[in-house]
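Forgive a beginner's question, but would it be possible to get a protein, spelled out as residues, together with the matching structure tokens, please?
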Amino acid sequence: MVVKLKQRNNASVGAASKVDTTAVVRGVIGDIRANGDQAVRSYSEKFDKWSPASFKISQEEIQQIISTVPQQIIDDIKQVQDNVRTFALAQRASIKDFELEIRPGVHLGQKNVPINSVGAYIPGGRYPLLASAHMTILTAKCAGVPHVTACTPPIAGKIPANTIAAMYLAGADDIFVLGGVQAVASMAIGTETMKKVDFIAGPGNAFVAEAKRQLFGEEIGIDLPAGPTEILIVGDEHADPFILATDLLSQAEHGPDSPAVLITNSKTVGEKTIEEVDRLLKILPTADIASVSWDRLGEVVLVENLDEAYKVADEYAYEHVQILTENPREALEKMSNYGALFLGEKTCVSYGDKCIGTNHVLPTRGAARYTGGLWVGKYLKTVTYQEVTSAQESGQLGLLCGRSARAENFEGHARSGDARAHQYLGEKFDWI
């Protein structure tokens, strides 16, 4: 049994105006591809009212900008980055190179090689998301990436000093104050003043996400498809409606398109949570955004028991899944579709977003069914190598290769095998 105590306001969702994002992004990319820096400057002026002499921040400018940041913020950035670094390095240590001798003289191996150059996009706009610098730049450096180019937009025509400090302390090699599609396209294509990268990571608005999608494959690799922030909470009859409401709104304030869902086996908890959300929205400074998100995309779902709750939660496959139950670790065994789990009342999604050390770039819009979030492994290429040092084994592989290739009508492949069988075993072939 699944009952919705609060449903999405589909009429409101449908009424929202839509821009042809795909066409806009395609046009910007095409212009930058053709006209380079000239087009970049034009779009920066148009979208961000930003046209400095150079979008790249020099080392001297970086130091001057950082000098304006309060020491407490610098200290907090360093502490958060230490958490992120500790976890990312542990992830890297878990990824092993190996070599295996499957038969005498037949060696197969695996290596994990860092991507040579990465672009990190650090969003700005409504909020200066300096935490994204930790997640994208620092994680890339922990993977061993030699060069990271980082871009962040100006905020209200000004350089976001706190974000620049986070980017620098995370290890960015080049920092540009440049936002939106023009930043992503510049990194992916390369311009007169920006080197082309091989991979782009980082969250962003719908235009940034669409730019990454359009450039993926031919130009660059990307971390994962990105969409609006999502939160889903599984709460039982013991959950505190005040905590539930607070945590739901913590993500609803991201934007008017951020879903917030509670799944509970308690009608009382569900109803009281709705009441608490309504009460808190009257005093939340970001209620103008969070209230729209809650009205349009907020849901409270009543189920019979927690097993059904976990099943329904897996169907949503949200990026952030918070478990506020008497035995939260049960979800580790009973759920599989999520970007990150947050277990117990002492843990919240905001910790993951801002400071605890796990990565906050996570799969949205159902992508958690097939991928996890950004991590050290995304910046590594797992490559293989092989070497045969035994003449006998090479000849035997040649015979096997010849038979296998001819079963697929690949005569050229078969003859590569024949050549080894002839050379090392003395086998006779009509074509040799």
Notes: The mean pLDDT is 95. The first strand starts at residue 2 and ends at 6. The radius of gyration is 26 Å. Residues 390-425 form one domain.
